[in-house]
Amino acid sequence: MKVRIFVTLKDGVLDPQGKAIHHALESLDFSGVNDVRVGKLIELEVDSSVSREEIDKMCDKLLANTVIETYEIELPKTALETHS
Amino acid sequence: MQSAVIVFPGSNCDRDMAVALETVSGQKPHMVWHGDTDLPAGLDVITIPGGFSYGDYLRSGAMASRSNIIKPVIEAAQRGVKILGVCNGFQILTETGLLPGALMRNSNMHFICKDAELEVINTDNIFTARYAGDTSVSIPVAHHDGNYFADDDTLDILEKDGRVVFRYQSAINGSARNIAGIINEAGNVLGMMPHPERAIDQKHGGTDGLALFESLLH
Predict the structure, then answer these.
(1) Contacts B176 to A, Cβ<8 Å
(2) For chain B, N or C: smaller number of CB within 10 Å?
(3) Number of domains in chain B
(4) Which domains does chain A have, with CATH numbers?
(5) pLDDT tens digits for chain B (218 residues)?
(6) Burial B84-106 (b: 16+ CB within 10 A, else e)
(7) CATH assignment at residue B137
(8) Which domain holds residue B42?
(9) Is B87 a catalytic residue?
(10) Residues of chain B contacting A, Cβ within 8 Å
């Protein structure tokens, strides 16, 4: 199954890349954008036997640096139903 | 002084570090490959050099900090062996958890390569004792991810306990409280973004990095 992991900077951690992109959008005359934050999307193709807890561990041990980043795990809809 | 330089794929300051260690100690350091699972016996100093280990994949230092050799390095740190991480080495030390905080992209998004004016905040430790009396130094920086971040509580503790060892004299990369280098609680692990190994010979343009390596001898 395909698991999607979104890694983003924690609130309060400055994101200079997001700021630069925000300025670029404004310079292209797009208005109404209040903030831009940049993150990462990591897709894992895993066996269905891999548990949510194991994916959490993968995030904590490697995929995200929890000093500065936070993560969200998106499981396929079928897996969600199986696990819930 | 028995020393080692840990070499990762993408390290590019490993030989400069080796020259600096040999210059002060007269002994060639062991060059230790990241895939090794053991360190040579009897090391006094382990250095983690600058560069772009593993191409900075995922985050600077993230992959290196999970490589084979890091486990014995952490064990050595816990035994009190001196550990020096410079630039990418500092990033790796924060990723291992031996030092708190993280190094983020420079606030201006640019790679910064220039001489940085530093203040040596604390000379009462094994890394900077030889700077006593001359605490304003110039040491080169060359990094993209040198913007030190830690939460306010951690920063307060670092400052209160004298663990901020080097500070930029003026803002350079967005680092919290202009921090350029910190030590761990036990005082035997130093991480710093500036490159002391690039300032040990007049031909480098300055020798302000030499005192750090001389401090390690004692």
Answers:
(1) none
(2) C
(3) 1
(4) 2-83 (3.30.1280.10)
(5) 999 999 999 999 999 999 999 999 999 999 999 999 999 999 999 999 999 999 999 999 999 999 999 999 999 999 999 999 999 999 999 999 999 999 999 999 999 999 999 999 999 999 999 998 889 999 999 999 999 999 999 999 999 999 999 999 999 999 999 999 999 999 999 999 999 999 999 999 999 999 999 999 97
(6) bbbbbbbbbbbbbebbbbbbbbb
(7) 3.40.50.880
(8) 3-216
(9) yes
(10) 58-59, 62, 66, 94-95, 100-102, 104-109, 147, 149-150, 174
